[in-house]
Amino acid sequence: MITTNPFEDRDGDKLREECGIFGVLGARDAAAMTALGLHALQHRGQEAVGITSFDGQEFFSRRGIGHVAQNFSSGQAIAELPGMMAAGHVRYSTTGGSGLRNVQPLFADLAAGGFAIAHNGNISNAMFLKRDLVQKGAIFQSTSDTEVIIHLVATSRYPTLLDRFVDVLRLVEGAYSLICMTPEGMIACRDPLGIRPLVMGKLGDAVVFASESVALDVVGADMVREVEPGELVQVALDGSIQTHRPFGDTPQRPCIFEHVYFSRPDSILGGRSVYEVRKAIGTQLALENPADADLVIPVPDSGVPAALGYAQQSGIPFELGIIRSHYVGRTFIQPSDGARNADVKRKHNANRALVAGKRIVLIDDSIVRGTTSLKIVQMMREAGAREVHFRVASPPTEHSCFYGVDTPERSKLLAARMDIAAMAEFIQADSLAFVSIDGLYRAVGEVQRNSTCPQYCDACFTGDYPTRLTDMGDRAPGCSPVKLKAKPAKVA
To answer: Active-site residues: which are they?
Structure first.
């Protein structure tokens, strides 16, 4: 049953992570702990959730459409998932579409026994690999790119499951953090560039893996470290741990947008507080793009840390000029077109008494299509704002992501179609500015971006994709729509 989703964005005007993953081995209440960990990762995927457990003899799975609390809040649901090992997944579909058949973890009985897999990311040559598998007789049960991994493991000729798994990872392109369960234990790994995040923790004798450190905090586990790019961590049922690095040392390229938006601000990423990085981005934004204004106002909730940094650096007071409702969902009755156009006002409302007559700086994390930004600027003007200056805590998003982030096709990205002056005119702001790519890198602790070998995956900003894009025909970096310029001002 599809139910309320307070995070829904009807305009598709926010970049959204595809999913979050969590796994634990060695806990008596493994399924309950997994459900709690997934609840902390709910922001990474609100469409569906699944948990698979193993009791030493048999695998058990439960999946559902909707949020974690809607599917795993009852004792009965958890009782259906016995055992001391469990893995789970929260999902927002990009590759494969919606529906229960695509909800992870995916499970299959292989010759070596049961095999369950939870995947965060996107395999950019999945269609190429799938065509070959289908021609050889493989029968797919889902349309998820993750199922390709299962079929490749099943058909690999290497003798051990670990060797088969490594063999498969050498064939796939793109981004992945994976948690896999077998009758022998759990395997967690990241792609060689470390595009998608994965951390490891401990709770007593239990070993825990999660997409973000905040999930470890919520279940009471201590963070041990991040799983390194290209590393496989193998945990046996007795709790013994082995690490493998089949890809050698490769330059890291973790997703920089995790710092900008995806990760929860109370997570630690790359050894840095996400919250502090976002404040630092706001500081860089103020240094690069000052504004003569009375108030700094965040677009809640993702714009708050950057707005604090901007206000502290600029000396302009920080105020909550937009109040967000946390009780908005897809089941809200919309009797007319006019009501549909009120989506933003249902989620955000101007603090009119504060805004009226003021020159304001609005801070948001990104501009995707621009439709939400336009509505928020209009809302500020209707509330009486004298001037609205829009500042963005990321560079212009000009390119689509093919590594597990839901982005519109490039022709629908506002920054791919317009220069900044035209974008400002489109959203009806008095001025518009973005943090520079080097400013973003300074905020995450680098001196600047290394254009020869970038320290992060920033392809959504630069078009510099770190891997081949086989399913796209390697055409994605060169797809450059013509940018529109702002119309010249009319002379009276």
So the answer is: 19
